[in-house]
Amino acid sequence: MACYSLRVVAGDLNTIVVQAAKSVNCQTARPEVPKEPEPPFQTGAPLLQVRDLRTNILKPASLALAAGECIAVRGPSGAGKTLLLRAIADLDPNQGLVSLEGRDRSTIPGPEWRRLVGYVPAEPGWWAETVGEHFGDWTAAAAVLTKLGFPEEAKSWPIARLSTGERLRLALVRALIVGPKVLLLDEPTAALDLASVEAVESLIADRIWAGLAVLWVTHDAGQARRIARRQLVVEAGSVREEVGQWPVTTSL
User: Fold this and answer.
1) Is 252 among the domain residues?
2) Chain segment 46-62, per-residue pLDDT in tens
3) Domain that holds residue 97
């Protein structure tokens, strides 16, 4: 945009004559601030809703989890963290209301519910001799496994030779490739080295940005702050949300 500077050449307080001088460039260069990419899902509305969920040990618990949100679940050993995840996954007898996208859990067949609301236990189960036999689509699995440091030949590895950390990472991939909307993670990085922890956190962070909702049990306070906006504390079977300063580290 061009503008002109003016100078007074004659006049008094009542009459002023001005003369236009040479044009000058008044435009100031402003650096463009890149916009944050919009997440590919609707934010705000709860994806998973839990109301008065209880077992013979777990006291009535209620929570709401949105798409693209991660909630850290913390508490002492034996407090009921695993019981909470298993009750949501409908793996143990429980009472209360649980819904996904407004659909009551009771209207969804069990296998379909556990596909949509995936559960990765601290000690995953295995039923075949080799790694590859646990994946219906090895091509899809391999694309994710490489991000966690597994080579292509891992397909033929005997389950018996796997370390605890390898089993945890494989179980995570097994849960992810079936396309869950919610993922319930029970200490998925407990037996991993630092590099593997970072790889798992990065992988899950990408999925959260794409809309996955996650409940993540961890004993690591630093990890809880890295992965989550909110924190649930489980103590003696009671579930409460931790209130206070909680750094925002994951995009909703």
Assistant:
1) no
2) 999 999 999 999 999 99
3) 46-241
